[in-house]
Amino acid sequence: MLVGGFGTRLRPLTWHTPKQMLPVVDRPMLERVVSELGQHGVTDAILSLGFKPDAFLAAYPDDRCGGVRLHYAVEPEPLDTAGAVRFAAEAVGMDSTFIVVNGDVLTDLDITALWRLHRDKRAEGTIALTPVEDPSRYGVVPIDDDGRVEAFIEKPRREDAPSNWINAGTYVLEPSVIERIPPGRRVSIERETFPAMVADGTLYALHSEAYWVDAGTAETYLQVQLDYVDGHRGVREPAIDASACVAADAVVEHSVVMAGAQVGAGATVRDSALLPGVRVDAGAVVERSVCGPRSVVGAGATLRDLTVLGEDVAVPAGAELWGARIPDEEP
User: Fold this and answer.
1) Which of 32, 116, 144, 185 has its CA 20 to 30 A from that of 77?
2) Whole-angstrom Cα distance, residue 331 to residue 326?
3) Same domain, 154 and 23
4) What DSSP string describes 94-107?
5) CATH number where 58 lies
6) Is 160 a residue whose pLDDT tops 90?
């Protein structure tokens, strides 16, 4: 599991916390991802760590998460996606078929079906593909009628993309792929390893229209929160934690209010996420925004247009913020 990134797209929430340790409704994102793996028979997961690895070690002192046993590989320096895969695989002596997942992707992908296709095709690598409206942020992957990948086009211009089917960040790989990755330097699996496998005809792919969200931006991080409480991931989950305190005349609509959060008299929270310990004071308005742990929105203040507050931020009473990121530099 690739969880070593700096989470730059989610700042300021990630100045001090790896994005996979950010909460999604009532538990860290990591637990959501690992639990899905466990449902497909995965028993052991190797976390390829880089940014603030101690946060993961402290959260799971018994090395178990979502019913899965955890192992750790801490990169001495960023090695990019393929470099991280090689480093983690070598750390545990990987010598059999294995799965790679991106730790910030929440999906209902049928990993068992991906594994079976890999076996049926006797592939060296098999990747999941998902459709998106704008493929320019991703790797676009055209395949032939047999499922063999014809090209791997990383972040094409929207008008140049041959399709809208993109790399979904879940792979089944043979140990031989590890030998394709040069040791000791940054290597991109999307830009180097996969194109080389395409050239050799050993990479296959599976189309999947299952739920899929890359939760690595403020917009998609908020989206996945609301998807869980809306029931898009199965059972509708409680939107307001039992330990939260919401005033009788406050308005909370289509929002997640996490453990210990408080919403004061006459306040409005709509289409937003309040992380643990947030306080929204009387008459304040929070709309389509994310408030980080223990942040305070002062009385009568307004947050709109995907404003994101980091940890322990205090918004003055009466302030108006539109699309702000506070703090915008590491505190």
Assistant:
1) 32
2) 10
3) yes
4) --S-EEEEBTTEEE
5) 3.90.550.10
6) no
126-147 confidence digits (pLDDT tens): 999 999 888 887 778 999 999 9
Res. 306 pLDDT band, cuts 50 70 90: very high
CB 124 within 8 A of CB 173: yes
- Give the separation between CA 162 and CA 262, rounded to whole angstroms: 49
Q: CB count, 10 Å around CB of 16?
A: 16
CB 88 within 8 A of CB 175: no
Length of the chain: 331
Q: Residue 53: which pLDDT band, with cuts at 50, 70 and 90?
A: confident
Biggest alpha carbon distance in the chain? 65
Strands 165-173 vs 125-131: parallel, antiparallel or unpaired = antiparallel
Joined together, the tokens standing for residue 248 give: 């009788």
* CA nearest to 125, candidates 174, 63, 85, 84: 174
Distance, in Å, from the CA atom of 262 to the CA atom of 276, rounded to the nearest integer, reads 9
pLDDT in the model for residue 331: 74
Identify which of 24, 226, 216, 19 has the alpha carbon closest to the alpha carbon of residue 137. Answer: 216
d(CA 331, CA 308): 15
**Buried-exposed string 94-114: b where 16+ CB fall within 10 A, e elsewhere:** beeebbbbbbbbbbebebeeb
Pick the closest to residue 30 from 11, 52, 271, 208 (CA basis): 52
Task: Among 215, 230, 260, give the residue marking a domain's end.
Answer: 215
- 296 Cβ contact list (under 8 Å, min separation 6): 278, 279, 281, 313, 314, 315
- 176 and 308, same structural domain? no
Closest alpha carbon to 205 in 158, 159, 134, 151: 151
Please tell me whether residues 35 and 172 are part of one structural domain.
Answer: yes
